Amino acid sequence: MGEVDPAFIQALEHQPKLDITEAEGIPLIDLSPLNSSNTDADLSNLVAEIGDACKNWGFFQVINHGVPSKCREKIESVARKFFALSKEEKKKVSKDQDNPLGYYDTELTKNVRDWREVFDFTLMNQVIIPASPEPEDKELKQLINQWPEYPPELRDACEEYAAEMEKQAYKLLELIALSLGLPKTRLNGFFKDNNSYARLNHYQPCHVPHLVLGLGRHKDGGAVTILAQDDVGGLEVKRKTDGEWVLVKPTPNAFIVNVGDVIQVWSNDKYESVEHRVMVNSERERFSFPFFFCPAHSTWVEPVEELINKDNPAKYKAYNWGKFYANRRRSNIKKLGVENIQIYHFRI
């Protein structure tokens, strides 16, 4: 069987149970009412569905979303080819503390190593972020995507996928805004020159699936995450009603959507960013492709003014998204010995 590096072993209370509970009731939402041929009533029902899903689960799946199936097939094809390369070849595009874009296989979540390898790339080929998480450091740095030589079609497939995901993210953002009683485009302006990014995940088979996690428990720091996964499954969500971990069963051609910390703060806790994690499979490898929709680095995140009143005062003080992102990124690469930054640090 072989020994497992202790860096991968989860603390006893976080080790996954193998008698998995499949999630009953995670909403499956049909986005076809966004087509112009549908009525206002159809759109109102869709907005209500989105609101209920955000409030009760923080997660939902979408179908009839309009993303071409070919786009998804291409991203899976290039991911399989890239991760099949030798370690030496993949490490030619390694990310590090200076550039968090590219290949990495020693990522940490809450100071425990994840059983996976990843390839990260941004929506824009050049992105500006703070040089450090220190509040007094005003320096900015430019991140540039690193593209491998092989497979040669990887760059085009990744750029096409990220562009389709951004279109999808704006649709979802507008539905979320409407569900909060805000104008449809109220939140769009925060995403001008955004630093959204996408990831190729490869989870290799693991002979001790009861001890390790492909990705440890966490909440997403951005606004909205959109995930495509293959048919293997492994994503678990912490159910709000009872705190149990439940499996999100793969639905063919669906995308899984979850609200992140930014939406939780903008909504002043009406919608909650929910903990989730990824189990590993003892026999099969797994691929997934998340897109993280994030505001511009200069955005100050705080409860939306229109949602605040004397009966519902602001629950968070403003924080800078770029600094938050820089801090979170640092903890993914370097073991800090303390919990990484969380939105509850900004609670009033």
TrEMBL record:
Source taxon at top rank:
Eukaryota
Q: Does this entry carry the keyword tRNA-binding?
A: no
Supply one GO molecular-function term. Answer: metal ion binding
Tell me the keywords, alphabetical order.
Iron, Metal-binding, Oxidoreductase
Q: Which residues form the Fe2OG dioxygenase domain?
A: 194-295
Q: Which Gene3D superfamilies match?
A: B-lactam Antibiotic, Isopenicillin N Synthase, Chain
Q: In Gene Ontology terms, what is a biological process of this protein?
A: response to molecule of fungal origin
Does the keyword Acyltransferase feature in the UniProt annotation?
A: no
PANTHER family given in the database record? OXOGLUTARATE/IRON-DEPENDENT DIOXYGENASE
Please state which protein family the record places this protein in. Answer: Belongs to the iron/ascorbate-dependent oxidoreductase family.
Q: What is this protein called?
A: DMR6-LIKE OXYGENASE 2-like
Q: Which organism is it from?
A: Olea europaea subsp. europaea
